[in-house]
Amino acid sequence: MSAPTGVGIGLRPGFAEPLLAGDRSVDFLEIVPENFVGRGGLDRRLLMRCADRWPILAHGVSVSLGGPDPLDVAWLAALKDLLDALEVPFYTDHLCFTSVGGFQSHELLPLPECDEAVAHVAARIREVRDRLDRPVAVENIAQYAVMPGSTLGREAFVHAVCEAADCGLLLDVNNVYVNARNGGTDPSADLLRLPLHRAVQLHVAGHEIHHGRVLDTHGAPVSDAVIELARLALHHVPGRVPVLLERDTHLPPVGEVLDEADDLRTALFPARARGAA
Q1: Angle between helix 115-132 and helix 73-86 axes, rounded to 10 deg
Q2: What is the pLDDT of residues 85-110, one digit of tens each?
Q3: Strand-pair partners of 10
Q4: Cys bridge to 243: 61, 186, 202, 236, which one at CB 3.0-4.6 A?
Q5: Would you say 203 and 246 are in contact if contact means Cβ atoms under 8 Å apart?
Q6: Integer CA distances (angstroms), 181 to 4, 150, 171, 195, 270, in order
Q7: DSSP class of residue 147?
Q8: Is the Cα dihedral 8, 14, 16, 17 positive or negative?
Q9: What is the DSSP code (8-state) at residue 177?
């Protein structure tokens, strides 16, 4: 199970059939596994047909890696079955918590950036890795508040967790930009403080500004500033990591998303784009 390279898109609802019916090029697809775990029917059949044509990556949203509740081992077992069937090389999720006391918030909530949280979440990442029998990488989230008890700082916390868990980094470039703009810091400096040597994948997305705050909405084209930040990241990450274009809100037809992915591929990998032409 080798990791893909190039630029991929998310397999969002309604995308599978036009992708399968067309002949547009895409380097890989990424799924939200919560949409498929334990489910059959047409969606599962379409997913397996997509897996026959393109590499599949999986990006979870509900394991709650930093949460206080015990990990849901039944869910993880079902998740492993799906990842095995799709031959997914590694699993990614968010460095956050989503649930408390059995209540699932469906929000990516920030953790206190402290040594105790590092030890807690690192142990849970290692358990998830063992149960899924494949590497795990965590995403640096967009966060709009600092939790009480934080002592390390955002980038130092991500670095400490990745080292303690011996896990990969899913580098979300847009989140770096959003956090820096909202916090009044330098996005490039913030990026370079992250453990880029552990990056296994990049996410790139658009953002929007509401009431003076920059929000990670995945609902707009990728800005030039984020593309420049992604170029900087690619100079520092190991090897040719896959880059995902995220679109989740104001979702255009799949053809337009593929156009955006083509533009992103040209911007990030101009030599490859010229060779393909």
Answers
A1: 50
A2: 999 999 999 999 888 888 787 878 88
A3: 30
A4: 202
A5: yes
A6: 31, 20, 17, 20, 28
A7: -
A8: negative
A9: H
3-state SS class at 205: strand
How many Å apart are CA 144 and CA 74, to the nearest integer? Answer: 32
Q: Tell me: the pLDDT tens digits for 57-89?
A: 999 999 999 999 999 999 999 999 999 999 999
Structure tokens at 59: 């990006």
Q: What tens digit of pLDDT does each residue of 129-138 get?
A: 999 999 999 9
The reply to whether the predicted model has a pTM over 0.70 is yes
Place of tokens 């011996």: 166
Determine the distance from the C-alpha atom of residue 212 to the mean position of all C-alpha atoms in its chain, rounded to a whole number. Answer: 25
Burial class from Cβ neighbours inside 10 Å (0-12, 13-18, 19+) for residue 116 reads: exposed
Q: Is 149 left (phi over 0), alpha (psi -120 to 50) or beta?
A: left
Element (H, E) at 268: helix 254-268
Instruction: Write down the residue that tokens 């990842």 correspond to.
Output: 83
Query: Which residue from 81, 15, 91 is spatially nearest to 53, judged by alpha carbons?
Result: 15
Q: How far apart are CA 257 and CA 77, in angstroms?
A: 33
Average pLDDT of the segment spanning 109-118: 94
**Please, what's the b/e burial string for 201-224 (b: 16 or more CB within 10 A of its CB; e: otherwise)?**
bbbbbbbeeeeeebbbbbbebbbe
H/E run at residue 28 = none
H helix or E strand, kind and range, residue 137:
strand 136-139
Is residue 237 within 8 A of residue 202, CB to CB? The reply is: yes
Res 216 pLDDT > 50: yes
Evaluate whether 171 touches 237 at the Cβ level (below 8 Å). yes
Judged by phi (left if over 0) then psi (alpha if -120 to 50, else beta), residue 208 lies in beta
